[in-house]
From TrEMBL:
Keywords: Aminopeptidase, Hydrolase, Metal-binding, Protease. Its EC number is 3.4.11.9. Belongs to the peptidase M24B family. Residues 538-597 form the Peptidase M24 C-terminal domain. InterPro entries: Creatin/AminoP/Spt16_N, Creatinase/aminopeptidase-like, Creatinase_N, Pept_M24, Pept_M24B, Peptidase_M24_C, X-Pro_aminopeptidase_P. This is Xaa-Pro aminopeptidase. Residues 7-139 form the Creatinase N-terminal domain. Residues 311-527 form the Peptidase M24 domain.
Length: 598
């Protein structure tokens, strides 16, 4: 259809034919993924919103789109306020909004393959108070009106080597089997795509920038597994790798298999499994036991092989970013660069490494005011020139077989203002405070979040996103359950204890709407720290990311002696790690911009 208004009308007409008085459109897929394949981009198709978190509700006369603080500016630029009302989360929620706006006695539809059972329970209760009903649809009505909807990817599975994985699939499946025995369960359903990829040591290409395949798995207490994946995705080497202990079925046989498990006790993660999985198991007579996906913590706590790979990938990636920053320092002052051309050049530097498989996400390339949009996604329509006397923010990463990277640098093009330098230095002070943190075992990311915000808070400032997210090993660039976030709910990850081997980002920022954005991001590895006389186990962070931090944006008067020492020490590490991987003018530039502070 030619406009988003047309698409909204088509959906409303479809709902009317189904005797529905509304429908909920989440931004997820059947696996509760954050990033989804093109076939599942229903929210973007319907509204134009390109962010990675959000949802919408369509009623006969009202339509609302729900986003959090990261997308306050972006949603208003991409979604027409004449047809959609903007709803801020967590100030409101879909269920609260429905309780106020759904028609009394109305029927609100939802796709049971796109929502958790907990959400269904909450929404049912909220609508009941309104005298309305939540109705599971058979076939998504958005799909019915999306005429040119892409087909799911048919990319083939690939083997993720034991050397990169650090453990064999057989070892991982046996660990899950042992866990099932302790729980008194017969099997567990793995619905999260990264859980399946990690468990079976396979990777795919079904989601942009995330090397996973559309599949489901059921792992049994005897260490065997059933994998449900489209047959065309299988190759001989993958079949040989999986072996006889992994039975392969067509993906569309998954629901029937769940119904065949009657009489068995099946563990299901309520946070990562959609309502339809529970419904199919219960319809077949299985006893469902709610339990966290047993791969979540082992996947988050990287083993020695994964850590070694991550260090190697970070070094190569840091060299690519450093070459880019050197190039930018020469070309940006000349004028003529744009957000798109700069992002393309950084990708070109990364692709000089033949081991790069993909970017880890669409680069956030924000010039001037676009840098103030936290999760900005540049396109031809929004593309801005990188202007003199402005700030440029580039948040980017790569997917390598030995690691996943994510780094943000903010640079001054020309002369920064005193305010820019003040804000940048406050962000840097928070970044340093978190990087230097030492904390007792059992500490959560939520308890550390204030370290990164304190210097902004002292000036009456803040930023509208978490300080850190987990990162996978040649998997999702956003990986749970660990986070460094002010949000303390169990679902947000802010309350999750940090454990040795976890990798998280350290990315405080500051955003002045309409003017500029600042973010400094490195990845951190949680490590055990030996302290003489300590009365308990202590943890700390090892910085994994190495590329110069723009010192022209640092107000040295705001740094204390310890912070100056950290910055000098960090830049010495950058020279040691990245220096041997670059040469020529870029090497001379690196030595100059990382020299000790005067």
């Amino acid at each position: 259809m030619s406009t988003y208004e047309d698409r909204l009308k088509l959906l409303r007409d479809e709902l009317a034919t189904r005797a529905l008085d509304g429908f909920v459109v989440p931004l997820t897929d059947e696996h509760m993924s954050e990033y989804v394949g093109a076939y599942a981009q229903r929210l973007a198709w319907l509204t134009g919103f390109q962010g990675s978190a959000g949802a919408a509700v369509v009623l006969p006369a009202d339509a609302a789109i729900f986003t959090d603080g990261r997308y306050t500016l972006q949603v208003r630029e991409q979604v027409d306020g004449a047809h959609w009302s903007y709803q801020a989360v967590p100030e409101t929620s879909i269920t609260r909004w429905l309780a106020e706006h759904a028609l009394a006695g109305g029927r609100i539809g939802y796709d049971p393959w796109l929502h958790t059972r907990d959400w269904v329970v909450q929404a049912t209760a909220a609508l009941a108070a309104r005298g309305a009903e939540l109705v599971a649809v058979d076939g998504n009505p958005v799909d019915a009106v999306w005429a040119d909807r892409p087909a799911p990817s048919d990319a083939r599975l690939v083997v993720h080597s034991d050397a990169h994985a650090g453990r064999t699939s057989a070892d991982k499946r046996q660990a899950i089997a042992d866990w099932l025995v302790t729980k008194g369960a017969d099997a567990t359903v793995l619905a999260a795509l990264d859980s399946i990829a990690w468990t079976l040591n396979i990777r795919g290409a079904d989601v942009d920038h995330t090397p996973v395949a559309l599949a489901y798995a059921v792992v049994s207490a005897d260490g065997t597994a059933d994998l449900f994946v489209a047959p065309e995705k299988m190759a001989d080497d993958v079949a040989q790798h999986l072996g006889n202990a992994v039975r392969v079925h067509p993906r569309d046989a998954f629901a029937d298999h769940l119904r065949s498990l009657g009489g068995q006790r099946i563990a299901v993660d309520p946070a990562q499994s959609v309502a339809a999985i529970f419904a199919e198991l219960e319809a077949g007579g299985a006893q469902v036991m709610e339990a966290r996906d047993p791969t979540v913590i082992p996947r988050a706590c990287k083993n020695a092989g994964e850590i070694a790979g991550q260090r190697a990938a970070q070094a190569r990636d840091g060299a690519a970013v450093t070459r880019f920053l050197h190039w930018l320092s020469i070309e940006a002052p000349k004028g003529g660069l744009t957000e798109l051309s700069a992002a393309a050049k950084l990708e070109a530097f990364r692709r000089e490494d033949a081991r790069l498989i993909d970017l880890s996400f669409d680069s956030i390339s924000g010039a001037g005011p676009n840098g103030a949009i936290c999760h900005y996604k540049v396109d031809e329509a929004s593309n801005r020139p990188i202007e003199i006397d402005s700030l440029y923010l580039i948040d980017s990463g790569g997917q390598y077989r030995d690691g996943t990277t994510d780094i943000t640098r903010t640079v001054a093009v020309g002369e920064p203002t005193a305010e820019m330098r003040d804000r940048f230095t406050r962000v840097l002070k928070g970044h340093i405070a978190l990087a230097r943190a030492v904390f007792p075992e059992g500490t959560s990311g939520g308890q550390l979040d204030v370290l990164a915000r304190q210097y902004l808070w002292a000036a009456g400032l803040d930023y509208p996103h978490g300080t850190g997210h987990g990162v996978g090993s040649f998997l999702a660039v956003h990986e749970g359950p660990q986070r460094i976030s002010a949000a303390w709910s169990s679902q947000s990850g802010g309350a999750e204890p940090l454990r040795e081997g976890m990798i998280l980002s350290n990315e405080p920022g500051y955003y002045k709407a309409g003017e500029y954005g600042i973010r400094i991001e490195n990845l951190l590895l949680v490590e055990r720290r030996m302290i003489p006389g300590a009365e308990g186990a202590m943890l700390a962070f090892e910085t994994l990311t190495f590329a110069p931090i723009d010192r022209t944006l640092v107000d040295l008067e705001l740094l204390d002696a310890g912070e100056r020492a950290w910055l000098d020490g960090y830049h010495a590490q950058v020279r040691d790690v990245v220096g041997p991987l670059i040469d020529g003018a870029a090497k001379y530039w690196l030595d100059a911009v990382t020299a000790p502070l005067g």
